[in-house]
Amino acid sequence: PLSSFLKKLFFISIVCVVTLVTFFLAGTTIYLNSISVSGGPVHHHADFEIWACGKEINLEDPTGLSNKIGTSTVHEHNDKRIHVEGVVVKKEDENIGRFFESIGGKLTNTSITLPTHEENIKFTSGDMCENGNAGFLQVFVYRVLNDTYYQEKNENPMNYIISPHSNVPPGDCIIVEFGSVKTKTEKICESFKVAEKVGKLKGEIKPSQTR
Fold first, then answer.
1. I want to staple 200 with a disulfide (CB 3.0 to 4.6 A). Which of 29, 33, 75, 195 is the partner?
2. Distance between alpha carbon 136 and the CA centroid of its chain, in Å?
3. Would you call 190 helix, strand, or coil by DSSP?
4. Is the pLDDT at 6 greater than 90, yes or no?
5. What is the tens place of the pLDDT at every residue in 47-93?
6. Nearest-angstrom CA–CA distance, 185 and 152
7. Mean pLDDT computed over 117-129
8. Which of 210, 211, 192 is nearest to 202 (CA)?
9. What is the DSSP pairing of strand 106-107 with strand 111-115?
């Protein structure tokens, strides 16, 4: 009967479509893995805080079911944490300049633009703070060597690539500050504070000890 033939044709069509889609997705995944610098999916994290003229800046809150701002690969979940998840095609996809770009902001070595609840705000080295002093963009990175952390001032922050760790610590703590020029920051991420308090992380060592 015609109806039986149409049912078989419909079923075969579905099977063909599903098979083609499956092969396409599998091929795409294999291709991306083959050209990626990560050699496959990664799950790297780094915590961060942003301070301007002595006040902490909170980024725009995520909306929708995805609960994130940024892209599927580089994003933030309103948790002050950089998430790099999935296949990393180019190494620069893991730098903090790319992170700020992905969330709708921008980071250079002398300025930063941030998406907040009300509007995008920008701070450029040389701009004045409310106290009448000039502010300068500075980025400090806490890194972990064995079970001990140390702090470095990064002179090329937009190109800094986060350490390849899933947990923080040993993943980085990144402090972005706009204010008076300093060699070190007294700010530190909550995750590092907690790890040190419970004895999982030791206090700061001098950078010279890491060489």
1. 195
2. 22
3. helix
4. no
5. 999 999 999 999 998 887 778 999 989 999 999 999 999 888 788 88
6. 9
7. 94
8. 192
9. antiparallel
Per-residue pLDDT at 51: 97
* 3-state SS string for 66-110: CCCEECCCEEECCCCEEEEEEECCCHHHHEHHHHHHHCCCEECCC
- Give residue 5's pLDDT: 65
Residue among 98, 126, 104 at smallest CA distance from 117: 104
Helix (H) / strand (E) containing 52: strand 41-52
39 vs 33: CA distance, rounded Å: 5
Q: How many residues does the chain have?
A: 211
**Are 121 and 75 a contacting pair, CB within 8 Å?**
no
- Give yes or no for a contact between 109 and 137, defined as CB atoms under 8 angstroms apart: yes
Look up the pTM and report it: 0.79
Cα separation, 197 vs 7, in Å, equals 67
Answer whether 125's CB lies under 8 Å from 117's CB. no
Q: Are 92 and 42 in contact (CB under 8 A)?
A: no
Q: How far apart are alpha carbons 204 and 207 in whole angstroms? A: 9
* Cβ pair 125, 136 in contact under 8 A: yes
What tokens appear for 154 in the block? 């990064």
